[in-house]
Each structure stands twice: as C-alpha cells, then as structure tokens.
Amino acid sequence: MSNTDTPIHQVLIVGAGFSGLGTALRLQQNGVDDVVILERAADIGGTWRDNTYPGAACDIPSNLYSFSFAQNPRWTRSYAGSDEIRDYIHWLAEEYDLRRLVRFNRSVTGLSYDDASGVWTATTEEGDTVRARSAVMAQGPLSNPSFPNIPGLERFQGKTIHSADWDHDYDFEGKAVGVIGTGASGVQIVPELAKQAKKLRVFQRTPCWILPRLDFRKPDWQKAVFRKLPAAQSAVRNGLFLAHESIATGIIWDTPVNGALETLAKAHLRHQVKDKWLRRQLTPDFKLGCKRVLMSSDFYPALQKDNTELITWPIASISENGVRTGEGIEHQFDCLVFATGFSVPNSGTPFPVYGLNGRELGQEWRRGAQAYKSINVSGYPNLFMIFGPNSGPGHNSALVYIESQIEYIVKGVTTLRSLGIKALDVKDDVQATHNRRLQKRLAKTNWNSGCKSWYLTEDGYNATMYPGFASQYARQMKHLELRDYRLLSGSGAPQ
Predict the structure, then answer these.
(1) PANTHER family per the record (predicted)?
(2) What's the topology of domain 3-144+343-488?
C-alpha cells in the first residue's frame, strides 16, 4: 500500500506502557478516538512487562504510583511489586478498552514529518506504515537493557542473565552466582539470590546512598474504605505526594535537609552493618542526590549472609569461567547476573526522527537532548514526547510527571482540532530561552555536583532531570501558550 493509500489517523503513539496507554485513555475521554499505538512486544506493560526479576518492585508508594484519574484501591502492599503493577496496567487496558488501539509486535524504525501534508509517518521493522496528524513518543527511557563495557564479556561460558530479561527457568540452587551492579535493580535482586545461590559474589563499582524501605501489607479494611470512598484514597495520595515534595529539598539541592537525609542513611547503614570495614566499603563519597537514592531494608543484611560476599575491586575482564578483578583474582561462576540498568537516551533518539525540511533529531541532540517543557522540539511540529529531556523525577512519582505531560498532549491535539490548523511548532527562540533557564537552575543542583551518573552526558550536560518540585513541573504544563508556537495553516504558512 502506498503512502497515499494509507489512512491518516489523528494520533500515533509509540509504546504501550504507562505513558502510551495513559495518553490514549485521556485522548479518548476528550473525544479523540482515532488513535493507533505501536508496541514492539507481544503485550502491554513497558518496563513493568520486561522487569520480572526476583524482588522487582517500585520504590514509590503504591497509592502514588498510579494515575490520579484511574486509582487502584486493591494494592496489597505499601510498595507494590512488579506483578501488582503489571496487573494494574492490564486493568487499565481492560477497563478503558485500550487493547483495540494497540498493534503488537511492531518495532518502529523511523518517524518522519511531511511538510506539505502536515502528517507524521511511522515505519516498522515488520514493513508497516502508519500515518497520523500528531505523533507521541511514549517508548520510555528505561526500555533498552544496558550491558557494561567489560573486556571479554562474550567469552563467558556459563549462564548470563540481564535484570530486564530474566530467565525464570534457570535454577540458582547450588550455583555460584556473580551479580554485577548495585543500583536500583541490584539492591532488589541480591536479597532474593542470597536465599538460593550456594555462593553469591556482588561486584560493586560505586556504593549508593540507601534509605530504609518501610514496606508492609495493606489491611483489608483499608482496601474496603478505598473502594467505597475514593476520596479517602485521593487524600492519602495527596499526603504521599506532599511528603515526597518535601524530600526534594534534601535530594535536589545542598540544604540542611540534605545533611539530615545523609545522617539517616548512615544511621540505617550503621544499624544494619556492624562490621566497620564493610560499612566503609558501603559508604558513598559523593553528596546524597548526586546519583539516584535507593530504598532497601534487606540489601545490607543479604550482603552479610555466610554465602555472600561484596567485592569492590574493579573488574578487569570477564573470562570463560568468571570474573577477573584488578588484584589478579579470577572468581569462577556458573551464572553472571547483570543488574546494570538501561541505555538512557540523554543524547540521540531510539530511532531516526525527521522533521521540517528533513532535519534529523538525533543529529541535533548529539551533544545533549533538549526540548520545550520536555515535550516539544522546534522544527518537529505536532510531535510530543513523554519523559522527554529534563523531565526526570529525583524525589517523586514518575506518574505525576507523566500525567502532566499527558494532559499537555491532550491540550495540543484538541487545540489543533478546535482551531482547524495543520500544526503547532514551538518557536526556536522560546525553546532556547527555556533550556538556558533550565541549565542555569541545574547547575545549582546535587545532580551536577561532580559525581558521574546516567543523568549526565559524557561532557557533563544534564539532559535528564527536572531541577525543581513536581508541583512546579505540573504548573508549567498546565497551560499551552499559543504565543510560544508557530501555528501552521493548511497551506503551510504560519498564522
């Protein structure tokens, strides 16, 4: 079928995780039903479909890790595990009839904008072509597993497992297992593997700040109250939101609250680890907040089990039989587990994106991604992003930020329809001013205080985090200011 024969939809969405499904839901509720979602996998769920490793859970309280417009009164724990979060996503799809919009097993290979028609065209690995007036990139930043650049990685003869591609058929009982990585997924995996493996060695490059995770089972009476009185659940959600907002003062900036949180983290470490040398190995040498703050109450105890050992020597290489560390020792394993996270695109794009006059977004972002309000980029009319540049939360629920972006997208799409115009294209000078202000604010944050993290590009540019409160971010997304955009008519001329 040629492009001229392909139907033109109102909205094309890439990705059927929280972001894509939430966008489709809210578009439907605002009268926009001609929506197509392209999903590369065979099911919905995004990162929560892929991350099924033992111990996988959210480090944001359950009642805050859900959409305010579709709350879940059935959470069984204060911090939901991945199974429950997947169940919630599946409930969303069934409750709001979203599956009918999804085309599964469609891997997008490119997005391109046609200047004359004002139409976005998506091409897929499978040979499909989908056209739409507006396009939404909702594939998420945590979608492509990252392996470390260690010499000899391909030589290992044993079993290798990545946290985002777990092999549930592999039996860890009686095995010697090495875990590489002690970040967000590592601190959840290690306690579970320590219960099964005969020998567990945990390779730590950099210790992280860890705060206690106060997880508990929710009582049945609370779930009953939330079902009968949704306002009660909204009140709890608002309380949790405000509590996390207050923590921002200690995570984002160097304040007395930052010092108090460091004291709390050190007390947590001291309470759970009595050995002074091990405590020293587990104590970060950077400011709390510079890297992601972790939540765990069982990681430190797991490291002290008889079958477990923390190794802090740098990894020199991987051999056929295991891991060689800098002091010349080879640690032999049956299985290597890589808890090494994802390739986060703080520069470049996951697939080629072509805008006005054939310009290519990946090239424009090669020194660091930037956008207007994280969601639009000048020269790419009617293209919207969820979790675009500088929308990363350091202290609050990702769903709060996603909701703000979804509502902005709904405003953009419905504005196009109500004004009868072809496209909205953010002005280049507006975007530039927005980003100058962002980077000036970021320079004063803990993220830019000197440590190396996935928040920053190689040359230290922060294209990831938002330098403020979640409420500030939501406030900037509340209104779509037409004066910030070029309004393109059907003839292509600005209005």
Answers:
(1) FAD_NAD(P)-BINDING DOMAIN-CONTAINING PROTEIN-RELATED, L-ORNITHINE N(5)-MONOOXYGENASE-RELATED
(2) FAD/NAD(P)-binding domain (3.50.50)
